[in-house]
């Protein structure tokens, strides 16, 4: 989920007033996975159509009324969602095969975790300096607003490979089901199943080379949102024990903008959340989207020992991310939480600009966090 600019309007609809979010092409937005034809991601604008605050996606169908095929929300370089609930994903990044990455020495493989749902994961094993030494295990959840991306896309394969090499960890990158075809909580359920599978050490790589006593979670944007949910599930279900959680530019929101938060960011989150999670109670104040909402599970229940929260200073979600960090720090949660902000950077800048100085600083901080520094 990236910085999007909208304005709210009240319009009459069938004898009632209906709130809709009208897009205005004012703020550029970078989406994870906006690689087109192998080129680097670029700035795009959230443009046409509307998002109905009460819209409920319907299953895709090959036979539908013409009105059902009306575009209701569109990000021109990324996706179109139709009234029927059908989604067109545009300019998808290439899918890269698993195998040996010559540049980093990391070897990857794909594992199907549930043939019935299609849940899978891509595992990354760095070059072993000491074959007998066990490696920390990092479970990674990709971003994409719950609508886009996968573990095997170029966006994430090219990010996780060097991350595994630099940090010396065995990575399990989860490919969860996407909305709106599979509305939330499907992504959360898949992610939980992936985490439990990784912690069980059923896979031979994890059993032979992984140390599940040093288990870490990480994710960017919607993936960091998933990390929060996983921490609550781990606490409520008696484990697995998680050493640390890395929140990279987490996608959180709420029905009411926080002080200093662009109203456009709050509106965009509320609109997209409608499509990703049509059954949400309270809209964007659903505790899964707004961990600070009244009635949300107390942060003291976060099931990890340490946490790193990161944000870009120019990200429209910066205020929301900072509020989350401060709430965790002020809570009765007994763990240690640290904050890193990247000056002058937008949402998940480290994906399209991995070689920039701030991306290197961020990677170094993640590596140090995993090492316990």
Tally the helices: 7
N to C succession of SSEs:
EEEEEEEEEEEEHEHHEHEHEHEH
- Report Rg: 20 Å
What is the averaged pLDDT score?
85
The proportion of residues forming helix, as a percent range, comes to 10-25%
Salient structural properties:
373 residues, alpha/beta, three-stranded antiparallel sheet, 7 helices, Alpha/beta hydrolase fold-3 domain-containing protein, AB_hydrolase_3, hydrolase, AB_hydrolase_fold, hydrolase activity
In words, what does this structure look like?
This protein starts with 5 loop residues before the first strand and ends with a helix. The model is unreliable at 1-64 (pLDDT under 50). Helix 1 links the parallel strand 12 and strand 13 (170-175). It has a nine-stranded mixed beta sheet with strand order 9-10-11-13-12-14-15-16-17, sandwiched between helices. A three-stranded antiparallel beta sheet has the order 1-2-5. Strands 6-7-8 form a three-stranded antiparallel beta sheet, with no helix packed on it. It is globular and about 60 Å long. Helix 2 crosses helix 4. It is of the alpha/beta class and 373 residues long. It has helices spanning 154-167, 186-200, 204-209, 222-236, 263-276, 318-330, 357-371; strands at residues 6-13, 16-23, 28-29, 44-45, 50-52, 71-75, 79-82, 87-89, 100-101, 106-114, 119-125, 135-141, 170-175, 210-220, 244-248, 306-312, 336-342.
Write the layout of secondary structure elements.
Elements: E1 6-13, E2 16-23, E3 28-29, E4 44-45, E5 50-52, E6 71-75, E7 79-82, E8 87-89, E9 100-101, E10 106-114, E11 119-125, E12 135-141, H1 154-167, E13 170-175, H2 186-200, H3 204-209, E14 210-220, H4 222-236, E15 244-248, H5 263-276, E16 306-312, H6 318-330, E17 336-342, H7 357-371
Parallel strand pairs: 12-13, 12-14, 14-15, 15-16, 16-17
Antiparallel strand pairs: 1-2, 2-5, 3-4, 6-7, 7-8, 9-10, 10-11, 11-13
Helix pairs in contact: 2-4
